Amino acid sequence: MAKLTSLDDLKSLLSEEDQRAVEAARKKVETGYGGRPQKLDVRLDTKRRRGKTVTLITGFESNPDRLEEIAGMLKKGCGAGGTVQDNSIEIQGDHRGKVIERLKTLGFEIREKK
Question: What's the pTM?
């Protein structure tokens, strides 16, 4: 068996039906209350945290259960703690890269703020 060197090599192992399902999931866009795509802000924050850094994700238009589900996935993916507060998610530490990548795969549009 040949060594897999790219995602295209891995994709060739999938059936056509599985490939279509992957493409459909990739094109899925997370929409807000008005039916428009959600645009999230991802930035670092240290205010009121005794100098400790958190990755702050704001701009969600989701119900609290969905927000808790997303926060759980992000915390697990980053290997860090975090919380949901006031329609935003806080992840302990600087995990902007991982968070942005994960949110894009979930169908969110991202605006990165410094």
Answer: 0.70
